[in-house]
Amino acid sequence: MTRKLKVFVSSAQKELEAERLALLALLTTDPFLKDHVEPILFERLPPPTRPVGKPYLDALKQCQVYVLMLDRDYAPAGVKVSPTQEEYDLARVMKIPAMALVKGKYDDSRDARTKAFFGQIKHDNFTYKRFTDRIDLKQEVAKWLRQVLKEERGIESSSGEQESGDETIEATACFESGQQSDIALVDLERTACKTLFKSLTGNDASPGEVMVLLRFCRRRQASSSWVQTHRRSIFNARYWQMPIQTPR
C-alpha cells in the first residue's frame, strides 16, 4: 500500500489554533483525503527524545507537502525570524508542493513583519489564496490537495468521494461560524445530530448512533467546539460510558 503523503501545517499556533484544528478535522474525515494524506501539526507530535535546537524543522523534513497559514501576528518582540518563516524558507529549499492561505481580504491590521513576510511570498511567486473563515479555508485546501495527489501520485477522487467531501464541509458551516461555534447542543434534534455526526466522522449515522450522540450532548451539555476538539475520543465506543466533566 502506498504511504500517505505527510502534510505539514505551518502557522502561528495560538493565533490560528481554530484553523489548525479545522484542517486536522478535514484531513482526518474527508472520505478521499483521509486515505491518502496525514496531517502533521507540530504541537501534536511527541516531544523529541533528545535535545534538538529546532525540532519543528526536523518534523517538516519528514513531510512531502507544506501548507502555510498567515493572519496578523508574526512573532513575539525580540524574535528576529519566526518559526513559521523558518518553515517557509525550508519548504522552498525542499521544493515540495506548497501553498499559503492568507486570512482576510485586507492587510492593514497585520504586523509590519507579517506584511514583509507576505511581500516575500508574493515576490517568490509562491502559490497563495485568501480565506475569510474556516469553511472556505477547508474548501481551498481540499481542492488543492486533490490536485497535488493527482499530480504527485496519479490518484484522483471519484465524483462520489468529492461530493461527499464537499457535503461534509458544508455540513459543518453552522458549527464553524464565529458566533455559533459554542452554541449549546442540548436542543439539537435528530436531523442536526445526523449533520454533526457526518461532519465529525465523514460517515452517515445509523438511527442508533444519532440517538447515542443526542443523549451524549444533552447529558454533557457539550458545546459544538468541545465536540469537534474531542472528536476522536467521543467516537471511541468505550468512551460513551466514561464519567467525564465537560469544560465550561
Count of beta strands: 5
Tell me the major beta sheet.
Answer: 5 strands, parallel
- Taking all Cα atoms into account, the compactness measure Rg is 19 Å
Number of helices: 11
How does this structure look, described?
Strand 1, helix 1 (17-29) and strand 2 (37-40) form a beta-alpha-beta unit. Helix 2 (55-61) packs parallel to helix 3. This protein has helices at 17-29, 55-61, 83-94, 112-123, 134-153, 159-171, 173-176, 190-201, 207-220, 224-229, 231-234; strands at 5-10, 37-40, 65-70, 98-103, 128-131. It is α/β, with parallel strands linked by helices and 248 residues long. The protein is globular, with a radius of gyration of 19 Å. The chain folds into two domains: 5-159, 3-Layer(aba) Sandwich (Rossmann fold), CATH 3.40.50.450; 172-241, no CATH class. It contains eleven helices and five strands, in the order βαβαβαβαβααααααα. It has a five-stranded parallel beta sheet, sandwiched between helices. 47% of the residues lie in helices and 10% in strands. The protein starts with a strand and ends in a 14-residue tail after the last helix.
Give a quick set of tags describing it.
248 residues; alpha/beta; Rossmann fold; 11 helices; globular
Concise structural overview:
It contains 11 helices and 5 strands, in the order βαβαβαβαβααααααα. The chain is an alpha/beta fold.
